[in-house]
Amino acid sequence: MSKKPSLAAVRWLNPDEERAWRAFRRMMIAVQFGTARDLATLGLSDPDYEVLSTLSERPGHTSTLHEQAAKMGWSRSRLSRHATRMEARGLVRRAPDPADGRGCYLVLTEHGLDTLKNAAPAHVASVRHHFVDRLTPEELTTLEHIARKVAGTAET
């Protein structure tokens, strides 16, 4: 939204919309908190896991800082600071981007790949526990459709 509406112009939520919104927020918080807590027992944060898993799927286990930041919905500077911490732990390394003198590539290290391989089974179990196994296959299909619609990526 670019312009703040006047109080008279606000379309307030009706009781059904309010309940749905609050339920959605509680669901997101519960799932994120549970999976983040479980990842922490493995020595990883949720963003650590996102960076590692995304890089593992890329050709050469490499992505530009710009592409990775866009995928995570982060600014380049925020991801750069996080990557610095991951680099200090040997999970990723940076390489110059010849196409962008100010940019760099993030490269998954062998240690980072091993860390991901060791964490993945526990993370999948956590996702199942906190999310997937609580829903029926039909509910998962409906939720996927809703999520794509809200995110603006619905398939036509």
Question: Explain this structure to me?
Answer:
This is MarR family transcriptional regulator. This protein is mainly α and 156 residues long. The chain has a domain at 45-128: Arc Repressor Mutant, subunit A (Orthogonal Bundle). It is built from six helices and three strands; from the N terminus they run ααβααββαα. It has helices spanning 15-40, 46-57, 65-72, 76-88, 110-130, 137-151, and strands at 62-64, 92-96, 104-108. The protein has a three-stranded antiparallel beta sheet with strand order 1-3-2. A hairpin with a 7-residue loop joins strand 2 (92-96) and strand 3. The two termini are 25 Å apart.
Condensed summary:
61% of the residues lie in helices and 8% in strands. It is mainly α and 156 residues long. The chain has a domain at 45-128: Orthogonal Bundle (Arc Repressor Mutant, subunit A).
Please name the CATH architecture of one domain: Orthogonal Bundle
Mean pLDDT reading: 92
Which CATH class of one domain applies here? Mainly Alpha
What is the H/E order? HHEHHEEHH
Q: What's the arrangement of strands in the largest beta sheet?
A: 1-3-2
Q: Outline the low-pLDDT stretches.
A: none
> Per DSSP, what share of the residues sits in E-state strands of 2 or more residues?
5-15%
In percent, how helical is the residue content?
55-70%
Determine the CATH topology of one domain.
Arc Repressor Mutant, subunit A
Beta strand count: 3
CATH superfamily name of one domain? Winged helix-like DNA-binding domain superfamily/Winged helix DNA-binding domain
